[in-house]
Amino acid sequence: MRQPQRGFTILEVMIVITIAAFIMASAMPSVGAWMRNTRIRTAAESISIGLQQARNEAVRRNQPVGFYLVSETDTTAMSDACALSASSGGWVVSLASPAGKCATNRDTFIAARPAGNVSGGLSVTSVDSAASAATSISFNGYGQVTGANAIACVRVRNTADTTARGLNISVNAGGQVRMCDPAVGSSDPRACPAECT
């Protein structure tokens, strides 16, 4: 009586490897795009969270609280070399301007986040309602935006790949913070308001 064969032939193994290679090759561009879009979304969510935290703290404390975009030489930690910047992903929620004192003047700080991965291939641009560069926004005790030249829109893009999807964060005069997609039509609920396109 003859024993049945066990295992695979070399031809069967080669066919499986070839099929797996084709599947991997077709999935690689999708994985790369997904990773770029994830980095953009993470940076946009970080800024959105900071804006919402500033607004919530202003209401909770019933006093003005500011959100400041700050540039850092070190993308992983805050230092006194920080400066207000309309093109940075680092931010500070504070009762007073953090410019030049992001490490030592922590008495007025509520929250802070260095730029992190924003510096690696992502760009952040913030503008006011007149499309001029803006570095900060202040919320009053009612959660409304106060002051001139306040941030109205923050744009997050991938500088290395212009085909990657960008995201915007809009802030209206009432203080509502909303993440939106500039690539969708105006009838889509994800669409950005006119001042943030």
* Biggest pleated-sheet summary: 6 strands, antiparallel
Figure out the total of helices. 1
Shape: elongated
Q: What percent of residues adopt helix (DSSP H or I)? A: 25-40%
Structural class: alpha+beta
Overall residue-averaged pLDDT value:
85
Please report the distance between the alpha carbons of the first and last residues.
Answer: 78 Å
* Series of H and E elements: HEEEEEEEEEE
Q: Unreliable stretches, pLDDT < 50, 5 or more residues?
A: none
Gyration radius, to the nearest Å? 23 Å
Which range does the strand content fall in? 15-25%
Question: What's the total number of strands?
Answer: 10
Could you please describe the fold and organization of this structure?
There is one protein chain. The chain is an alpha+beta fold. The protein contains one helix and ten strands, in the order H-E-E-E-E-E-E-E-E-E-E. The protein has one helix at 10-61, and strands at residues 65-71, 83-84, 90-94, 109-113, 122-127, 136-139, 145-146, 153-158, 167-171, 177-180. Strands 1, 2, 3, 4, 6 and 7 form a six-stranded antiparallel sheet that branches. Strands 5-8-9-10 form a four-stranded antiparallel sheet, covered by helices on one side. The mean pLDDT is 85.
